[in-house]
Automatic annotation (TrEMBL):
It comes from Setaria italica. This is Protein-serine/threonine kinase. The gene is LOC101756026. PANTHER family: [PYRUVATE DEHYDROGENASE (ACETYL-TRANSFERRING)] KINASE, MITOCHONDRIAL (PTHR11947:SF3), PYRUVATE DEHYDROGENASE KINASE (PTHR11947). It is an enzyme of class 2 (transferase). It is found in: Mitochondrion matrix.
Length: 290
């Protein structure tokens, strides 16, 4: 892709500024991003001193433009004309605006700079709250266009692969920002480091997610299958509670719907949905069985 004004089409009013930002996006998008493990974030965040928070902000000021630029470039080169759909253009402009905000923020050198930088990336995170539904709208716009043109390609594998990469990267970006912001909490919950619960019970999260999913099923259908959870309630491991709850909630919600619709007009007893939590030496397996 050329570093032309096309990559910032509609995002900037000034043509010279647009060209300069486009060149920066291409340059930063070609850089290698730095992997950050959950273990490292937990160890580093265990002492959220002003110095550590400053180091964290300085790292994010270098790292976030790389990750955001990569996504902006990828949004510009999607197959089947998806890049030109209005919803996708909106998402791309959000990424470009965020790249510009972070890239052109003054160098973080002291405590006051760090606090101002933290407030700015908070706003960046809020700006991207609606990325997922807006991306889905863009895909719908493409499908509608292709159906009208009767030019439906065989499968959307390329788009599905892109969406998988895009959403995984989005989770990483939001985790980096969210963890840094959360480390500023003056009164964190016991055992919680930023967003990471060091003693998270997957059984308890499964129970909470199941209650939420079952409430939706009851509201939609008037009844809901039972849910049986198997596992050691005393077992804990370090993880992000919100992420695990969301994953389990979606899995259980879909399982409840499948069972409910299958047995809706049946005289047979509705079987329960089972959640099995198995802990190993190095990993945790959670299985939802219908």
């Amino acid at each position: 892709m050329a570093a032309s004004g096309g990559v910032v089409r509609g995002a900037m009013a000034s043509e010279p500024l647009a060209r300069a930002v486009a060149e920066e996006v291409v340059r930063w998008g070609s850089m290698k991003q730095t992997g950050v493990s959950l273990r490292y974030m937990m160890e580093f965040g265990s002492r959220p001193t002003p110095r550590n928070l400053l180091l964290s902000a300085q790292f994010l000021q270098r790292e976030l433009p790389i990750r955001i630029a990569r996504r902006a470039l990828e949004l510009e080169s999607l197959p089947f004309g998806l890049s030109n759909k209005p919803a996708i253009l909106k998402v791309r402009d959000w990424y470009l605006d965020s790249f510009r905000d972070i890239r052109y923020f003054p160098e973080v050198r002291n405590r006051n700079d760090e606090l101002a930088f933290t407030e700015m990336i908070k706003m960046v995170k809020v700006r991207h709250n609606n990325v997922v539904p807006t991306m889905a709208l863009g895909v719908q716009q493409l499908k509608h266009h292709l159906c009208r043109a009767r030019n439906i390609p065989f499968g959307f594998d390329e788009i599905h692969e892109f969406l998988d990469r895009f959403y995984m990267s989005r989770i990483g970006i939001r985790m980096l920002i969210g963890q840094h912001v959360a480390l500023h909490d003056p009164e964190p919950e016991p055992g919680v480091i930023g967003l990471i619960n060091t003693k998270l019970s997957p059984v308890q999260v499964a129970q909470a997610a199941s209650e939420d999913a079952r409430a939706i099923c009851l509201r939609e259908y008037g009844s809901a299958p039972d849910i049986n959870i198997y596992g050691d309630p005393n077992f804990t491991f370090p993880y992000v509670a919100l992420h695990l709850h969301l994953m389990l909630f979606e899995l259980v919600k879909n399982s409840l719907r499948a069972v409910q619709e299958r047995y809706m007009n049946s005289d047979k007893d509705v079987p329960p949905v089972r959640i099995i939590v198995a802990d190993g030496e190095e990993d945790v397996t959670i299985k939802v069985v219908v």
